[in-house]
Amino acid sequence: MTVVSRPSTVHPTPALDQRSKELRRTIVRMIQAGKRGHLGSAFSLVEIIRVLYDEVLRYRPTEPKWPLRDRCILSKGHGCLALYAMLADKGFFPEAELWKFCHADGILGGHPESDKIPGVEVSTGSLGHGLSIAIGFALNARYEKAAHRTFVILSDGESNEGSVWEAALCAAKHRLSQLTVIVDYNKQQSYGSTFEVLDLEPFADKWRSFGFAVTEVDGHDLTALRSVLTRLPLAADKPSVVICHTVKGKGVAFAEGNPEWHHKSKISDEEIRALLIALEASAS
Amino acid sequence: MRKVCLDMVYELAKQDPRIFFIGSDLGAGTLKQFKREMPDRFFMEGVSEANLIGMAAGLALEGKIVYVNTIATFLTRRCFEQIVVDLCLHRANVRLIGNGGGLVYAPLGPTHLAIDDIAILRAIPNMTIVAPADANEMRRFMPMTVDYPGPIYIRLAKGNDPIVTPEGPFEIGRAVPVRTGSDVLILTTGVTLKPALDAAATLAGQGIEAAILHLPTVKPLDADAILRSASIVPAIVTIEEHTLMGGLGSAVAELIAEADFNPSKRFRRIGIPDVFPDQYGSQASLMARYAITAEQLCATITELLSPATPHPGLH
Fold it and tell me: Predicted ipTM?
């Protein structure tokens, strides 16, 4: 019998510092305000978004369409709470918008829309769209001889979509070295483990065989993320993919790796209190 | 018509550096001059239609005008969600050129018959749908696609289609009055203008004067022109190379039903019934099988205008 080795879903979790905790607290408060949200999917993404927006991407919050900005598409649109917390933190829109998450008079919905939210490059929500659009961005940058880069953040469940792999073939064909795919590989999709629902392994080898330069990193380790994301591209003549090993619900012990917390609706005040207490109690 | 359309893409691209072309896996040599002269704006990306649409959207969101070409069914059926989300939601300036609109690919069977393309796309906000009748109309239409805002679906006919459209400026969203008459109004889109003209000539010999309003743009529909033309006739007939569910006939029926004409108008639709075509043959033979013909138009109109035909409004 062949034994297939699985990447560990439990690895030593780096401690969350105050900024990572604060971003998560903001996400919890948004879920409280909207009475719903993809908590687990946002929590696995916080450090990726944080390093990108704190240290990697070039952008101007007061000029969201600044032509020289790096383009970043959150293709896993359901992780938008992490993005919203960061965009508000950077001043793309007033913080007050956060507390109108999913409200009729708010701009922040359960999936991000580019015509409503300054700083959101593309409307996403349906999975498997972002990489192809990112290819269009990157091809345009090449045509215009522009220096800006294109980033696209995928989820692991999203990588079930055939369109992701059509796009992967295309990105490699065009040797789009200014394009970086970041995968939030938290190994949980809505129903359960990615290994059980639709196994992606050997995931890194798949990307490699499709023509990408590949690296893997602990997606909650700020130092490791910084080290990878500031030395892109990984190869001069290939698109890059950074597979970030993450923990769904990272930072709240009872939500970590628990599919129950993929998405929550009708969340109670008691659950909100429990989340905030657990977050505070997590290693720091 | 297909040749004129692609030739126009080339001509327009020479004049405008914003214009890009993306094909799937088209016939060898397609737009070879474009590829040779403007290689950085020409892409042939393989049998990956969903990716084509997203890629085109990305280019369009950066200010480019992107013409995407492949077989109509693969564009409209396979890529429905990419068209909805990537193109229509973002109002992306992408022009989808669908080969083989309607029954053109009769010998290739139901996988290649774009008999539902208009219905599929009509349901999407921000989409524009244009089905020219002949190469001349295509030539007048294509320059209008450059600066028109939002996505456009361009339905191609077979090629070497008879030239039937009157000269005159083309405006997207504007109906084309082709013939005047006070007995019946025939509404056409795409190549069904030809059987309408033939039927009108036959009917004229019988003393029935048919008006013809050609609707190359099915969405947005020129409702004002249709209602204006409808108001002066007792009967209206639509004819389309498309399923009767959701195409031109449906769009016109919606208008007529809500127009509160008094007395009400007699109304019939001619098109493909709710079936997958079950024969091969040719476009012409399938058109005949489903009675999308001048003869059927004459028969339908004669019956509608006959005093012996019960009028539902008179009961």
Answer: 0.95
